[in-house]
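Entry 14. Ran structure prediction on the chain below.
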Amino acid sequence: MVIYTKQELRQAILDRILNQKEDEASFKSRVIGEKLLALPVFQKAKTILLYASIRGEVDTFAVIKAALALGKRVALPVVMKEQSRIIPVAVSSVRQLRKGAYGILEPDARGTGEVPLQEIDLVVVPGVVFDTSNNRLGRGAGYYDRLLAKLPPQTPTVGLAFDCQIVDVIPGLEPHDRPVTQVLSN
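Output, structure tokens:
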């Protein structure tokens, strides 16, 4: 099959991801999580922006719990739909999460837990597709592209992906599409 557009590629990869067996995805998630925990940039980071994974994404809940157990300040994104942006909000437990915009678990944004971007030492980024040049394709709303554009340039960003999510080249990249520093896969 020849893929011509980002939308066609996104759908083809989503189909691949969702066709993985659950135990296979769980095993791959553990492998990727262990690689993330072993990264020097993760080990040095004091404040990390992670994400609460949804079906079809690398499971991040074990990493969130491990980072909290290591005494790291962990933030998760809160979708501010009206403003078309996400804000990082600190959490101390996954039990604090509730369904937010798009049905994704997120912290309650009404508290004082917003974490300024300049205080974040590492951002872990979801994606539907990554290429061999670390470009990423998300779900199409641009929330992470806008966030990545506002980060201090030295902030490392790591994409998490199953092997079936990595392609040679993402077609039709635009100036607002932001790559990550590196991609971890199984």
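The radius of gyration is 16 Å. Will compare against last week's run tomorrow.
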